[in-house]
Amino acid sequence: MIQVGDKHFEEYLTADQIQSCVKELARQIDNDFASKDLLILGILNGAFLFVADLVKYMTIDPEISFLKFASYEGTTSTGKVHDLIGVNEDLAGKHVLIVEDIVDSGTTLAHIMNILKSKNATSISTATLFFKPEAYQQKIALQYIGKEIPNLFVVGYGMDYQGKGRNLTELYQLKP
Length: 176
Ligand code: IMP
Ligand code: MG
Prior knowledge:
Blueprint: E1 2-4, E2 7-13, H1 15-33, E3 38-44, H2 48-57, E4 63-73, E5 76-85, E6 95-103, H3 107-116, E7 123-131, E8 144-148, E9 154-155, E10 171-174
Helix pairs in contact: 1-2
The chain binds inosinic acid and magnesium ion.
């Protein structure tokens, strides 16, 4: 058990288990985008470790950039999304892969899709390391899912509780 801020968390996935998920996603993305112009758009802050590991396991040579929004306060999604860093790249003619650490309600993803849809990308797909199917409230399909997890708050591997816990190499679940 560990403590982050005022809350206690239990280990849910080891570092090795997470890396296996990331490797498998890299393999699928390699296969699907071989010889295509791929732009990876990582979503900050949470996806910073996932993007870094994912692109190291990939054998294709994508462009890599980041977008930044904020929607979470404490342990529940606020439903409001603010843009902090927007799209600077020209997406015309490119295959865009949105890379998220975790998709919860899907509010952030819906907002990103809204922003990207008018930018003439050849295709837009989404990769998320973790997905909470019970919390998801959107109809947007997710092409690459590392692992479905229960609807419990998690920290580690990029994900924080009140700004802390992002550098943990394992994933921890909030103790009910
Ligand atoms: P959504 O908009 O509700 O899908 O939430 C998306 C964002 O909230 C993710 O990209 C994460 O950064 C953050 N988030 C969602 N669930 C968790 C969690 O369990 N722990 C930490 N951050 C989370
Ligand atoms: Mg995020």
